[in-house]
Design goal:
Elements lengths: L12 H27 L5 H26 L2 H11 L6 H7 L11 H12 L3 H4 L2 E2 L5 E2 L3 E7 L5 E7 L3 H22 L6 H13 L3 H14 L6 E2 L12 E5 L4 E2 L3 H6 L4 H19 L1 E3 L7 E4 L3 E4 L5 E3 L2 H16 L2 H11 L2 E2 L4 H13 L14 H14 L2 E3 L5 H16 L6 H17 L2 H5 L1
Length: about 450
């Protein structure tokens, strides 16, 4: 038997083939619906927009139904899409957004078995009170509110029984698809991205590791009174069950509730940005899944970070050189930008620095002339077209795996900045963190002296 990625055996071949075909058929249907619209001639611009909106709505429902049927990895992909309010069509954001914390729940009998298997006793034996109806259901687990025997209000995250086998199956299917695509279309080689998915996804099944990740970030940000990470209750935590402090906050994307509570959404955006600057640039360990289901807000405002299943540790030299890159991007220092890109592991087919400069500049060009803290949809087609021409002439042949989850965080944060209608200056906010860390790279003795 081949070594598993997750520690679980995959489904049998009939189940594996069925899941592969389900995904393939749905995406083919979606693709053809857009191709038909693209080839339709003789209609007005307004009519084309109306039909495109209708196609988005139909296809979003198709993808939603597929995710509900497939569970696991498919739901996680949909959560990412729905979090990109800056680039995804509104219809996809609205429909797939239901998957952030409203996935159909499993019966209580499953919860009871999983708790007994992981903690050695039934919920009613371990807790003074345990609500049978879940607070929320997501891609890998569902959360139940409970009260400990000491009277603490807690949230108990219980992993779905079959999710390990489903993830193992889907990771193998996706790995095969990515390898086939790389062979057929060398310009669409996502094997580096797939390798990071294969490394990161199995870690999300280890709830004890998630608890340790939460405590590490909590310790790193303990000096901040505007950031909160719930406490872990280790005596009620195991490999498939995680018990943490219950916090009744407002979902970060729920703008009407934030406004009703008198919370400044722009201040929330600033706190979130600063917290990620510190995690990534200063400590090199970060929460890598900032979709709206994982971030809450309390009056103050205080930003609450939930679900540390997807977390990342950066090698020390990579972290420092990444800070150096960010500082070069902000100051528009092209020579330093190229050196930093190369130092963190980017390589191009031809030794022409213009490609890396264009890649770096695209981050700021995507924000548009108003320097928005999120992707400006009006300028993105032009930026993509220009960057595509440059990359076609001199493609990037190596992207460091360590940067992929940073890109994920940047993308998800861009979507949240758009939802919050943020006016945060990214250069002014990120700049001091990047400058300090890049200075420490140039003069390591400063850190020792400090």
């Amino acid at each position: 038997m081949a070594k598993t990625l997750t520690g679980f055996e995959p489904l049998g071949w009939p189940g594996r083939v069925r899941r592969f075909l389900l995904v393939g058929w749905t995406f083919l249907t979606v693709y053809l619906s857009y191709k038909r619209l693209q080839k339709t001639r003789g209609i007005s611009k307004a009519e084309r927009e109306r039909r495109l909106t209708a196609a988005h709505a139909r296809n979003a429902e198709r993808v939603y139904k597929l995710a509900i049927r497939m569970e696991g990895l498919m739901i996680k992909m949909c959560q990412f899409i729905s979090s990109r309010a800056d680039v995804a069509p509104p219809e996809y954001v609205h429909v797939l957004g239901r998957l952030q914390d409203q996935v159909p729940s499993r019966p209580y009998s499953m919860v009871e078995r999983q708790v007994r298997r992981s903690l050695g006793a039934r919920p009613d034996q371990l807790f003074a009170h345990f609500e049978r109806t879940p607070l929320a259901s997501a891609s890998l687990a569902q959360v139940h509110r409970a009260t400990t025997k000491d009277g603490a209000d807690v949230a108990v995250k219980v992993q779905y029984e079959t999710i390990g086998r489903l993830l193992e199956t889907d990771l193998r299917n996706l790995d095969l698809l990515v390898k086939l695509l790389a062979r057929i279309e060398p310009n669409f080689d996502f094997r580096v991205l797939m390798d990071e998915v294969k490394r990161g996804t199995p870690r999300e099944l280890d709830f004890e590791l998630e608890g340790r990740s939460a405590e590490r970030v909590a310790a790193d940000l303990a000096h901040r009174k505007d950031v909160l990470v719930p406490k872990v209750y280790w005596e009620l935590t195991g490999p498939r069950v995680l018990t943490m402090e219950y916090i009744d906050g407002i979902k970060i994307s729920d703008i009407p509730r934030l406004q009703a509570a008198g919370i400044d959404a722009n201040q929330v955006a600033l706190i979130m940005t600063e917290a990620y600057c510190e995690q990534i640039l200063v400590h090199g360990y970060f929460h890598a899944d900032p979709h709206p289901g994982n971030l809450m807000v309390l009056p103050g405002p205080v930003v609450v970070f939930l679900d540390f299943g997807l977390s990342k540790e950066l090698p020390e030299m990579f972290r420092r050189n990444y800070a150096r890159l960010v500082h070069a991007l902000i100051t528009q220092n092209d020579d330093e930008m190229v050196r930093a890109f190369q130092a963190i592991g980017f390589e191009t087919k031809k030794d022409e620095p213009e490609t890396l400069v264009a890649l770096g500049r695209s981050f700021f060009e995507a924000a548009g002339p108003d320097a928005k803290p999120y992707v400006d949809q009006d300028v993105m087609p032009e930026v993509n077209e220009r960057l595509a021409r440059i990359l076609q002439n001199n493609p990037v042949t190596r992207i460091p795996a360590d940067i992929l989850l940073i890109f994920r965080v940047i993308g998800l944060m861009s979507g949240l900045q758009k939802r919050l209608d943020s006016t945060v200056s990214m250069a002014d906010t990120i700049g001091p963190y990047a400058e300090e860390q890049s200075r420490l790279l140039e003069h390591p003795g400063l850190q020792a002296a400090g």
